[in-house]
Structure prediction request, 601 residues.
Amino acid sequence: MLNVALPKGRLGDQVFSMLERAGYGGAGPVKGSRRLVVEDKAAGVRYFLVKPSDVAIYVLHGAADVGVVGKDILLETTPDVYELLDLHIGTCRMAVAGLPNTSFSRQVLRVATKYPNIAKRYFDAQSREIELIALNGSIELAPLVGLSDVIVDIVETGSTLKANHLKVLEEMMPISARLIANIASYKFKAQAIQAMVDALAQEVNRRGEGIQ
Amino acid sequence: MLRDVTSCIYGMCEEMKGYGLAIFPAFLPREACVLRLRALYESRGFWRTETAKFEDYGLYLDNKNFLGTDQILTFMDHSGRLLALKPDITLSLAKNQPAQASATPEKLYYVEEVVRFSPENRAYKVLDQIGLEWMGREDAFANLEVLDLALRSLSLMGESAMDVSHLGFVSGLLENTGLSPLVERKVLGAIHSKSPHDVAEVLEAEGVVNSRREQILALAGIHGPFQTALQEAKGLIRGEGMARAYAELEVLAKSLQPAQHQTLHLDFSVVNDLDYYNGLIFRGYIRGIPGVVCSGGRYDNLMQKLGKNCRAIGFGIALHQLDTFLGAGQRQTDLLLLYPAQCDWSALMEQVRELNAQGLTVRCEREDADITRLSYGKLERFGGGGNKC
Prediction:
């Protein structure tokens, strides 16, 4: 039985649809279900529905063999897991954003973010001194009320930034959902895991061709 | 005398191998494992060494990348010297080697505690570790001897798997591609994560194209049964360094037993710091334990950095995971013996001794004790009467 940690919410629903089309979906409805564990004995898969930021933890500790998690969380927490496939869904980007007239000439840039490790590495690479302000949500508020000069956050369409009179000042890196695996599980369930990777890779290619 | 005892234990272990860890039912998995491994290592002429509990902090400050952390628990001793609670044993053993390797290699093993910071727990943890080190002059047998012991160590703990790589092969290929050190680190990171998409992205961003790109992607994709994957790797050889590395891996392929090949994979996603490690590196796993259990390799570069003209290879096994994941099982006493508030104490003691002499484990409790939490095979009352539970 392969244990799969799926993120609750829109991303998890999208991934489950992909898995269904790939032949892993006889477990019954996941979307809208309040169940946390959904099993498909025939396909040999058990799904756990977890908080998106917890998927990597379940996989790291072997409670799940594989999982789907955003690249932003992987870059922030750097868990020692295998990152087997880019699913090309949940696409967005990590960016530095702020008010249009933001000056980068301050000695120490105040940066508000949910991603302190990503932000630190990015500005360290520029030899840029920053003061980190770690927040948990509504990051866009920080520069508006003078808490920070800029924010580091994920940007999808940019509409939230625009609605709050902010703009992208620097693009950092693309983000998307990734299929990850526990490194020990990969040794003992290699066939089952690789079969899932191959099936999802085909789905990704089919989506890519469909979009084109 | 010790040799007689360890030979005896090793003989018992070999004879009863099929019973797994149940051979010592009263032992925790970690304890049983240490006895087995000690017998194994001593059967090959590796002797136990013990190191001091504390080490000069400067040793770790100078070798942060070897440790992979700068979170070290330190304190000031009575003379004002900054000492550390050891996060690692290999560095201390390496430091204590003479500048010139002697004609006879040091063959050592240790059973020690190390103190490491756990970011998840936000605290320092004391972890049990058993490790083995070979230090001496250049010797073609050393790789095989140590890898064989690592494989046997894992097989004594449960169903196992081992990934092997060769940093000489990896660095040889990357040297030929002319990547900068920073880009090399990014590529190695992506290979370590088995992320071919990330490898491709890094190479595209750096403008690495054509055959160089294909070689790196091919290296990242090689992982599978040792002999099969080795044939794949042969096609990537460019230059003497890679040829030498390949030859070392080929010797191992020919010299290990067929049963060992069942659990051995060649996998270039096993990477480590090239400043310290060179040559053969490996990581071992046990079914049921989610992380790496055994980790090791050649660290000639570390010895050079410490000013020792010496070759070295070794491995460490994280014992602390065994009890957590392999489980101690519920401990059950053979016999629960209930006694009244007042009785003939010497007669009670005599009965207990007789029962022990029969090979039974016995727990004595007063009649009015709450025995609902206890696990036992049979219940008896001192003075007669009993029932099976």
